Amino acid sequence: MLPKNPYVLLSVINCKLRDEYSSFDSxxxxxxxxxxxxxxxxxxxxxxxxxxxxxxx
Length: 57
What we know:
The structure is a single chain. This protein is mostly helical. The protein has one domain. The chain is 54% helix and 7% strand. The chain is built from three helices and two strands, in the order H-H-H-E-E. The chain has helices at residues 6-19, 24-31, 35-43, and strands spanning 49-50, 55-56. The protein has a two-stranded antiparallel ribbon with strand order 1-2. The protein starts with 5 loop residues before the first helix and ends with a strand. 9% of the residues are buried.
């Protein structure tokens, strides 16, 4: 289960994207998480997924 705090979630997601997953979609599928919920939480602090860098920026 991923953390709900937006800043902790950002850190965890970006670390996993850097170290374990080649895309956000593969992370979501593997962890069986709600993509829209994660995007909504990170959007609330101004972060959006960038496919080119494979991170939330």
